[in-house]
Amino acid sequence: MNKIYSLKYSAATGGLIAVSELAKRVSGKTNRKLVATMLSLAVAGTVNAANIDISNVWARDYLDLAQNKGIFQPGATDVTITLKNGDKFSFHNLSIPDFSGAAASGAATAIGGSYSVTVAHNKKNPQAAETQVYAQSSYKVVDRRNSNDFEIQRLNKFVVETVGATPAETNPTTYSDALERYGIVTSDGSKKIIGFRAGSGGTSFINGESKISTNSAYSHDLLSASLFEVTQWDSYGMMIYKNDKTFRNLEIFGDSGSGAYLYDNKLEKWVLVGTTHGIASVNGDQLTWITKYNDKLVSELKDTYSHKINLNGNNVTIKNTDITLHQNNADTTGTQEKITKDKDIVFTNGGDVLFKDNLDFGSGGIIFDEGHEYNINGQGFTFKGAGIDIGKESIVNWNALYSSDDVLHKIGPGTLNVQKKQGANIKIGEGNVLLNEEGTFNNIYLASGNGKVILNKDNSLGNDQYAGIFFTKRGGTLDLNGHNQTFTRIAATDDGTTITNSDTVMLPTY
């Protein structure tokens, strides 16, 4: 695989990697300079490398920005910080990105569903991204694809703690095209490509000649942000950036795979443009290489794990080995298709689903499209898998059971209308979940701030002191909906928890 230069520092190995294919492309004089700087960086990289510069910026600002705390809420505008010398710093008047997609290690970024992105060389270090933690949930990598060190990973469950970063939808071929798409007018009046990165490499705080080393990497508490300027858009399929000279957080070992974000002027939102590949020192400046987001590669992996079924208002029966589509109620034979464990079943255009087995989809889930109604009937059979993803303005009437030896993960903005007592636990990341039985779930976990639990019967929650409901990262909403529920305590570990009583919840009609 082609790299950037004849020698480069690898965050995975903490040293130099020789790349002979490109050595000829570097002139002798330039090559000697680069080798000298790379060698000095390699020696310093694991022992004395500078990292977070707190000579004029408070350490807390680097951490709060990456963790979206305090004034650094996603979408916040006109954010300024006060430097140690009393001056104001404005981040070029950029809005604040949502960094919730960053795994606790900082070395991977969720992009929605059961997918995340990192760099391929992180596989050498299982601590980085092989198991990814978001809030109180752990996810394991079950498959991957990679190219030019960019890697898309499939996880064993739908990630509920975040809707994920918005991937870049385009890859401009030239710097001028990139400047048009991602450029902003900076505080000095010039147009530049300015972005942010969030990672948690081996963290040290530098103040002049003094240094405080945490001796820690891959810690969410030390997730910190970088502000950068892209200086070269395409260098062997990667972009190159340099750090801001004031808000200066230099990448170091452990930062490989961390996500880089630019503001998309067309979409009017922050997008994930790539993952951190490596660093080099050139003429005394540290440069960082970002391997670009590869939409084709991502789509290939998603297609591999998707089995699409157009219900079109009809019904299907599902077993562990096959699925049978019936065109109407009189069609008793139907059309049968084989299904494969670990694949997602993607239903479109509404209809009825009948379980004929205790279904174990492994790392596969069930995905429902937007704007339709689905009726799921279990007939006493159970389902277990990556979770349930319900599209916008869709409702899934769940008259089935989830396996009691697993946890149901619910994502997507649509509504899950649970009509039976489950005897299982649920984690909710987005959308509505209606509870129609006493103690519908044993325990309910709400994360991301985008989910809502709605009571449709008295005492729909559990009966312990917390009523079996727990609010974690960014919380969520509990709507009593005019029903009685007893609490002794409220369990909330983060901001964003809301308890309300609307008594006006209406289900969509189709």
UniProtKB/TrEMBL annotation:
Keyword Transmembrane carried by entry: yes
Coiled-coil regions, chain positions: none
Keyword Secreted tagged: yes
Pfam families: ESPR, Peptidase_S6
Gene3D superfamilies attached to this UniProt entry: 2.160.20.20, 2.40.10.120
Compartments, record wording: Cell envelope; Cell outer membrane; Secreted
Stored InterPro entries: Autotransporter_pectin_lyase_C, ESPR, Pectin_lyase_fold/virulence, Peptidase_S6_dom
One CC-aspect GO term: cell outer membrane
Swiss-Prot/TrEMBL GO biological process terms: proteolysis
Keywords attached to this entry: Cell outer membrane, Hydrolase, Membrane, Protease, Secreted, Signal, Transmembrane, Transmembrane beta strand
Signal peptide range: none
Highest taxon above the source species: Bacteria
EC number: 3.4.21.-
MF (Gene Ontology): peptidase activity
PROSITE patterns assigned: PEPTIDASE_S6
Occurrences of domain Peptidase S6 (ranges): 51-300
UniProt enzyme class: hydrolase
Protein name: Serine protease
Organism, as annotated: Shigella sonnei
